[in-house]
Amino acid sequence: MQSIFNYFPDLIPEQYLQYQQLEPFYRNWNSKINLISRKDIDEIYLHHMLHSLSIAKLINFKPGTSIMDVGTGGGFPGIPLAIMFPEAHFYLIDSIGKKIKVVNTLIHELGLKNCTAEKTRAEDVGKKFDFIVSRAVTNLPNFVNWVKGKIHSGSKHQLPNGILYLKGGDFSEELKTIKQKITVFTIQDFFSEPYFTTKNIIHVKINT
Length: 208
Prior knowledge:
Blueprint: H1 2-7, H2 13-30, H3 44-58, E1 66-70, H4 78-84, E2 89-94, H5 97-110, E3 115-119, E4 131-135, H6 140-147, E5 162-168, H7 172-175, E6 181-186, E7 199-205
Parallel strand pairs: 1-2, 1-4, 2-3, 4-5
Antiparallel strand pairs: 5-7, 6-7
Helix pairs in contact: 3-4
């Protein structure tokens, strides 16, 4: 967990305690339901929490910003980001109800007032958001089609409203079929650990 505090030294005590609670919570629940890969549980802070928080190095969500996390699974990247930005509003969705039940349990235990979770699909969400985040739940062209009508016009930030997609490996072929403006940010520009060498944040600007 020290890596989080090294990269984000200005956390208040409440945030510090909330991040500390995450590992025992996930260790307990992961023995009952496969929230994350069991081989990854010992690397939960690096592979899941810090990976999620790379978005916080790219953008500082202003108070009132609305963010939807699609395919949140066990709560990534939404939960770590909701802790980091207590004045932004997070809506976490997944199609697997038992995972959402665990995420709602975690939201309650952490006392997160800026975060809700619901079992639903992105296509069925009727609201709009400033940003939509996700960790590679499908190929990017499919994802863009799911959510492109769910982004508010305008922007409160220097980075335009749109999609922030965490993805590794070679995705060059996927990008060729996307008509929207795309910017790729290398996570190793933010974090020095070798794990992030091939990890990226893809920003897709959605014109609405």
